[in-house]
Amino acid sequence: MVATRLNPYLSFDGDAKQAMEFYRDVFGGTLATHTYGEYGADQDGAHADRIMHALLETRAGLTLMGADARPGTEHAPGNAYAVSLSGDDDTELRGYWEKLSSGSTVEVPLEKQMWGDVFGMCRDRFGVSWMVNITAPQN
């Protein structure tokens, strides 16, 4: 039996392969990709090489899925979501931040916030918003 899980599923406009490979480089893990062409889901052949489904799973238990917008579907990214990384492993989370924020638009620099944690927010080169929160050590 497979456990139920909840994880981000990101949408892209033709660059899902590059984006998911970038996230694999950031987080490590195993990336599996399948194209629209592999499943015969592209009638005119214009989207055969685009990603229909990608799954990234890491040894740390992180799961990220993504795909290019379906043929004939408008890709409309927005600011209605962000992917959040949080925990107390300062080194690990700062490492993710450095890779995710490189070449991105940093909306909130990674620094100590009023609630005591270290927090930052960026929009990467693929238009995905990321939030990183490093929990302050408890006294």
UniProtKB/TrEMBL annotation:
Residues 5-132 form the Glyoxalase/fosfomycin resistance/dioxygenase domain. Coiled coil: none annotated. Transmembrane segments: none annotated. InterPro entries: Glyas_Bleomycin-R_OHBP_Dase (IPR029068), Glyas_Fos-R_dOase_dom (IPR004360), PhnB-like (IPR028973). This is VOC family protein. It comes from Streptomyces sanyensis. The lineage of its organism: Bacteria, Bacillati, Actinomycetota, Actinomycetes, Kitasatosporales.
